[in-house]
Amino acid sequence: MRASGYFTPQPPCGGFGLKPLVRIFLIIIIIFSVTRTIIFCQPVKIGLLVQDSSCRSAIRGAEIAVRSVNEKGGMNGNPFSLVVRSMEGPWGTGSKQAVDLIFNEKVWALLGSHDGRNAHLVEQAATKSTVVFISAWSGDQTLSQAFVPWFFNCVPNYDRQAEALAGEIYEKRKYNSIAVISDNDYDSGLLLKALLQITTLKGMIPPEQFSCGNLKNNAGNLKEKVLNRGFDCLILFCDPLNTLAILRAVRKINPEIQLFGSLIILNEDILSEDEMNEVEKEIHIISTINPEHGETNFSRQYFKMYGVYPGLVSSFSFDMANVLINAILKAGSPDREKIQEALYKTNYNGITGLIRFDDKGKREGKAFIF
After folding, report:
1. Cβ contacts of residue 206 below 8 Å, gap of 6+?
2. Measuring CA to CA, which residue among 261, 118, 245 is closest to residue 179?
3. Angstrom distances, CA of residue 49 to CA of 71, 82, 118, 130
4. Which of 155, 127, 130 is nearest to 141 (CA)?
5. What is the mean pLDDT of the chain?
6. Least CB-packed of 31, 138, 149, 211 within 10 Å?
7. Cα(299)–Cα(36) distance, rounded to whole angstroms?
8. Spatial contact of 68 and 301, defined as CB atoms under 8 Å apart
9. How far is CA 44 from CA 55, 99, 172, in A?
10. How far is C-alpha 161 from the geometric centre of its chain's CA atoms?
11. For residue 68, with 0-12 CB atoms within 10 Å meaning exposed, 13-18 middle and 19 or more buried, which class applies?
């Protein structure tokens, strides 16, 4: 357009000048940045299911692992967060709590420190929602027999524990007269079943069986039914308190009898530190931890924070949390299949020993007696 012989330039973009366009562009950048911050600064949630509200050790072990990774920057600046749920209550509570963690809390994965019965409930919820679930206390061998690709276990299963006991008692020490005392606990029953299967498979004389319910705090009954029978050793598949009561009765009546037990005895939420020391001193117990390793940075940190040293519950929980955190970091996203794939490639040297998983999610390697 011309006016008075001069050319008058027109503003570009249909009448808008550059400054409005710059403003719009800046507004878009600001909106994107704010949105990105909101999306990517959300915590990486990990659900932890414990047996009941008294189970502090598993929470403490996992908390130390989470705190450690957050001190290193978390996941690309996003902090890890532990969401804890207790499974105490009527039967089925564990399943409801797992569902709540998965769908309401939207956790990236599940950790569990509880008995085998509750582990089955969590496994079912994890399977239906395709969320990874790692167990860190029960060695229930039937959990992996369901061939669920989302299930992993950091604890040597009861088949492996029974094999370690049979090898030590029958093959190494050559004991001939053996008795096993068990109670009505679900996991104790699985341990007994596993031991009977391995002795039958290897052609060993099966141990004579006694019920713990008739022997607890009854030294006379224990002496009459068990100790006067001349057994070389007793295998204790009982809860920690029953085990402690039997141990004390045996030591008063016949201190020569050798005692053996599984790692579920060493639950620091049930036994005091002095009681734990008493049990560890008197009973040959299955473990994956080499006692020659001595004090670790984890145990020093645990003692500094809580005034006691960690036991097996907190140690397995610590390892379990670290294994999962490492898998999430390798996956780099909440993609459940990528987290699962990373777990199958785990090669982690933890407090409880080297952790690797087979194709069924079972922890590889052998348990031993100390």
Report:
1. 196, 199, 200
2. 261
3. 24, 10, 9, 17
4. 155
5. 87
6. 31
7. 39
8. no
9. 23, 18, 48
10. 17
11. middle
- The residue whose two tokens read 């099966």 is 206
Helix (H) or strand (E) holding 181: strand 178-182
Residue 37, classified by CB atoms within 10 Å of its CB into exposed (0-12), middle (13-18) or buried (19+), is: exposed
* CB-neighbour burial class of residue 164 (10 A; exposed 0-12, middle 13-18, buried 19+): buried
pLDDT tens-digit map of 270-308: 999 999 999 999 999 987 765 445 557 899 999 999 999
Give the pLDDT score at 1: 42
Which tens digits make up the pLDDT trace of 5-55?
444 455 554 444 556 665 665 555 555 444 444 444 689 999 999 999 899
Contacts of 264 by beta carbon, 8 Å cutoff, 6+ apart: 137, 138, 139, 187, 188, 191, 239, 240
d(CA 80, CA 68): 10
What residues pair up with 3 in beta bridges, in sequence order?
A: 6
In what helix (H) or strand (E) does residue 67 lie, and over which residues does it extend? Answer: helix 56-71
* Tokens representing residue 98 in the block: 């797992």
Read out DSSP for 186-218?
HHHHHHHHHHHHHHHHTTPPPPEEEEGGGTTT-
| Proportion of the chain in helix, strand, coil states, percent, rounded to 5 | 50, 15, 30
